[in-house]
Every structure is written in C-alpha cells, then in structure tokens.
Write a structure and sequence with these properties.
heterodimer, A: mainly alpha, ABC transporter involved in vitamin B12 uptake, BtuC, two-stranded antiparallel ribbon, 14 helices, 2 strands, B: alpha/beta, four-stranded antiparallel sheet, 12 strands, 34% helix
C-alpha cells in the first residue's frame, strides 16, 4: 500500500479510505489480543460473549474483561492516538520533526496540573482533566515564547526550552509529592506513565475530548500541509496562520492534558508514530492525522500488553517501554538532522 | 486603474527603525516591474506587505480597487501568487504535491485535488521545466530546481499578479534567462502582471517595463529602465561606479562595473595591518 518515496502519487480519497480501513482492522485484531492476554488467558469466543453480554458466562471472566481489561485497552487506544495526533500537529506548526508533547515538556505540565488538582482536593472526575489541560497549555505557551528570538522560532531553542521547562516542571512534581504527602511510588508511576488504574469513567471523560480535538485537527489537514512548508507561504495561500497556530496549541494541549490526567507522562509516542507514518505514507496531513491516531492506538496497546505480561505478575510502567523504543529513535533523528 | 496600489506605506519591524517609509507606488495591470536596491533597502518587506503577509503600520494597499485588508485571504491568493526566497523544507512533499498546493485557494474542506487541479499543475510544471521532477521529494532537489517548483506553484494559483523575491538567486545563467523569458511571455501573452525583486540590474533592464529603485526604505526613483538606471543614480544608491551603455545586440541597457581606483584599497590596507 505505501508507495516508495520516489514514486509517491498525490493523495486520493480512495487511498485515505484504504489505509484507514486497514488500520481499523489491525486495531480490531490488536484489541482482541489485548483483551485475551494477561495473568489469566481468556479465549476469543469468551471475549465476544462477554462483549455481547451473554448471561451464561462466569461472572469472574466477565469482570476481568469488562471491568479490568476493556477500560484499560480503550484507554490505551485513546492515549496512544491522542498523543500521536498532538505530535503530528506540533511538528507541523513548529516545523520541527522532533517536537512532541513529552519532549516539549507539555506532558509534565499536564501532570503538575493534575497533581495540583488532587493535592488541593478539587480533583473530581471532570476537574482533573481541566486542571491538567491548563498545566499543559501554560507550558506550551511558555516553551513557545522562550524559543522565539527576534520574531523567529528557533528550532534548537525550542527543543532546549522544552527540555529545560520539562526538567523544572518535573522538579515541581516531586516537590508537590513531598508537600502533599503523596506516596512517592505513586508519583513515580505517574512520571513514568502507566495505564494500570484505568476505569470506564475515565474513558467516558477523555474519549470525547480526544476525538473532538483530533476530529477538528483532521478537518484542518490541508492547512497543516501548507503551514508545514512555511508560515509566509501558508499565509499567502490563504491560511490564517496565527489562528491555526493558536487553535493547534489549544487542541494539542487539550488532548495532552486529558490524556496525562489518566495515564501520566507516556513519552515518545508523539515522536515515534508520526515519524513512522510520515516515512511509510508520506507527509500529507489528510492521511497523517487519521493514520497516526489509529497506529498510535495500536502501538500503545502492544506496549501495554508487553508492559503487563513480560515479567508478570509485576507490571512495568508502559512509559518505560515507549521510552526504550523512542529515545534511541530520537537520537537517530537528531543525528540525521 | 492600477491593479495594485500602495499608498503612503510605512512599515517597521520593531516600531523604532522604519524599514519602509511612505512608499507610494502603483503597479499597472499587465506591466513587468522590477524592484532594485541594495541589501536592506526594504524590497522584500515591500513584497510581504503587498501580499498581506505583513501589515504596514501606515498607509493603504488597494488590490483591484478594494482595500486588501477587506479581502478574504483565499480571494487574495487567487489574485496574487508569491515566489518566496529559499524556504527551508523539512517534510518530504513531492514537487507535484508542492505545485498542487498552489490550487488550495480554489478548494474547500479536505480539498482533494480535481482533474482540473492536476491539469493546471501539469501545465505549470512543463512551463518551468520541472515535469521530470514530479515525484521527487522537494528535500532532494537542488536550490535552482526548488525555485522553479515554487514558481510553478505560484503560477498554479492562476494569479493576476506574480510577486517574486529574487527569483534568480539560486538559478544558473541558462535558467535565469529561461525563467525571465517565461515570465515575460506570460506577461505579454496572458497579461500577467509581474513584480520582481532583483539584484541583477542587467536582467531587470532587459525584461522590465518599469523599474523601482529603493534606497534605505524609501522609493528613490521609478520609471523606465532608461530613466532609472543611470550611472549617477546607481552611484548614489549602490555607491558603486558603473558604465551604462546600450548592448550592441539586444539594444537594452548594459550596466558594467568599473573597478574604481579607491575600491578595495581601504580594505587591503586594513588587511595588511
């Protein structure tokens, strides 16, 4: 399906439909495996019976699938998809293939927001993501401002400010943990990112936020193509660059904030997925957005399956798995320039 | 009526030092206008104001009789095409994809390209001699090839006015002449108005109907090449001695540098210390 880069044809509706369908099928298969694999292995037919609500199924099997594994796999898809789409958007508007919520410190900003909400005890189901979103947005704006020199966005300054702000914000997180007498272990798990506390109400809150933001970005895809080739060119071809940039920061932070409030800081997904998709499918955002969302979901599902099975019954935080794949890739991309 | 009229334009990047001071210039429909001047004289800034990438602090720009601030961006893009100075490309869009972007002011929604878009892109790529690079990623092309792709993109907008910022900066001599010849042909046969910032005074003299000469943010002179490109004006604006005469074959103006007795001596003296 993917053309070699030298012979790539311009994108068509048919190709978007084909690639999307293939990825949806792959996501479905992955979901089946993820529901089946775990401390107790459950055969596929029982998964299907649980999902359609067969009364003949034992209540323990039903509970494992519907109450434990289903929220977790759904959350993995939303988190993986959301981070990837945010990565695609940030990379285009900042014109930097290394930009993503984790590297830019935005995920850490979201975590501070979430911790503050919990620490000051206004961390209800809805306030938690809102507070997390505000934390993410503040870091986004701060990093962007710091990277601006003489009216121009400096690529190196952008990465460095992201990393520095992220380090500073991580220190604040640890300070909060000490001040609020939070269990350090819990804080650490948050910093490393994990999906083990997933429940269905989180899915209900985060899913619409991520789907809505990703949907809006998708419909702006042609404008992202233009802005990826330069602000002035985009402006001259009819894009309101300032508005698109504001909207992208807002939606990118919104998605990151919502995702971080339920999963903690899962790094590098927003780097790996857009990169692989761009390499295999081309840089057109009309395909890049949906493909990255679906592939991001598939990727994080597998990472989560590995994290909870490889040294079972002990769970590795899923952020460890994504960092183990992402960090070397980051170095590779940086060296390639 | 001028197709593009800049009236009393002043612009400053930092609100202190003006980059453009009270510029008044009318671009006539169908003319080939070259903008010349030393580095930092405000030429590129003027083009950015004219395409509404920058907003001048003072003055009004009229496009086809309406204030450009009141025209929706896609409508401007259907009238004005811009060929920028070299832009950094990070994402490997193919040459064809880049040229098709010139059709975006004509599309809506997700903007999948129509047959017409492909036809226009194809024709413009043949015109600028980049057909054979169609499926190559823009990141793999040379500076000159990229420049010709950007010209094809601007032409694919089917604009009435084409603004070019040093279109020959990355081109070899053959392609410099070729691109200017194409622009002149479009200018004469289709009435395309061309406004081009140029450092090459000879090419400017050869192809332009009029020349606007800039000096430190002000319009120094505007008129026919013969009126504007005199040895005296070039001496004053560029601080360089030149000989201006007529080319024996093309009969257009010919500007030749005269290495003056003093030029370079000062620097040589500095170097020897």
């Amino acid at each position: 399906m993917p053309f070699p880069p030298s012979a790539r044809q311009p994108l068509t509706r048919v190709r978007v439909a084909r690639v999307t369908t293939a990825l949806v099928l792959a996501l479905g298969c992955t979901l089946g495996v993820a529901l089946s694999v775990g401390s107790v292995s459950i055969p596929f037919n029982e998964i299907v019976r649980a999902l359609v609500g067969d009364p003949g199924l034992s209540s323990s099997t039903k509970a494992i699938i519907l109450d434990i594994r289903l929220p977790r796999v759904l959350l993995a898809i939303i988190v993986g998809g959301g981070l990837s789409v945010a990565g695609v958007a940030f990379q285009a508007i900042l014109r930097n293939p290394l930009a993503e919520p984790y590297i830019l410190g935005i995920s850490s900003g979201g975590t501070v927001g979430a911790m503050l909400a919990i620490g000051l005890a206004f961390g209800g189901l809805f306030m938690l993501p809102v507070s997390s979103f505000l934390g993410a947005l503040i870091v986004t704006i701060l990093v962007y401002r710091l990277a601006h020199r003489h009216g121009r966005l400096d690529s190196t300054a952008l990465l460095l400010s992201g990393i520095m702000v992220g380090a500073f914000v991580n220190a604040i997180i640890l300070l909060f943990a000490a001040l609020f007498n939070q269990e350090m272990r819990h804080t650490l798990l948050w910093l490393l990112g994990n999906l083990s506390t997933a429940n269905l109400s989180q899915v209900v809150v985060v899913l619409p936020v991520v789907l809505m933001s990703a949907g809006i970005l998708f419909f702006l895809a042609p404008q992202f193509n233009l802005i990826a080739t330069g602000d002035e060119t985009a402006e001259q071809l009819g894009v309101d660059v300032a508005r698109l940039r504001r909207l992208s920061y807002l939606l990118g932070s919104l998605m990151t904030g919502a995702v971080v409030s339920v999963s903690g800081v899962i790094g590098f997904v927003g780097l790996i997925i857009p990169h692989i998709c761009r390499l295999t499918l081309g840089p057109d955002h009309r395909l890049l957005f949906p493909a990255s969302f679906l592939f991001g979901g598939i990727f994080l599902l597998w990472a989560d399956v590995i994290s909870r099975t490889v040294i079972a019954p002990t769970e590795i935080p899923v952020g460890v798995i994504t960092a183990a794949i992402g960090a070397p890739l980051f170095v590779y991309l940086l060296r390639r320039g | 009526m001028p197709i593009l009229s800049l009236q009393n334009i002043s612009f400053s990047y930092d609100d202190k030092t003006p980059t453009l001071r009270r510029i008044d210039i009318d671009v006539r429909s169908g003319e080939f206008l070259s903008i010349v001047g030393p580095n930092g004289s405000g030429k590129s800034t003027l083009l950015k104001c004219a395409s509404r990438v920058l907003r001048p602090q003072e003055g009004v720009i009229m496009l086809d009789g309406s204030a450009i601030d009141r025209i929706a961006r896609p409508d401007i893009a259907r009238k004005i095409g811009v060929v920028p100075q070299e832009a950094v490309m990070l994402f490997p869009f193919t040459a064809l994809e880049i040229v098709l972007m010139g059709r975006s002011p004509y599309r809506q929604g997700l903007g999948f390209e129509t047959e017409k878009d492909f036809e226009v892109a194809d024709a413009m790529m043949s015109l600028t001699d980049v057909q054979h690079l169609k499926h190559k990623p823009i990141t793999a092309l040379s500076g000159g090839e990229r420049q010709r792709v950007y010209i094809a993109r601007a032409l694919a907008q089917r604009p009435k006015i084409l603004l070019l910022d040093e279109p020959n900066a990355h081109l070899d001599i053959a392609h410099q002449v070729e691109i200017f010849t194409i622009l002149k042909r479009l200018n004469e046969s289709e009435g395309l108005t061309v406004v081009s910032v140029s450092h090459d005074l000879n090419l400017a003299a050869m192809f332009s109907d009029r020349i606007a000469m800039f000096q430190r943010g002000s319009l120094y002179a505007v008129g026919t090449p013969q009126e504007v490109l005199t040895a005296d004006s070039i001496q004053e604006v560029f601080e360089t001695d030149v000989l201006v005469d007529e080319h024996p074959q093309s009969l257009s103006l010919r500007i030749t540098l005269i290495p003056s007795a003093t030029t370079g001596k000062h620097h040589a003296a500095l170097y020897s210390h």
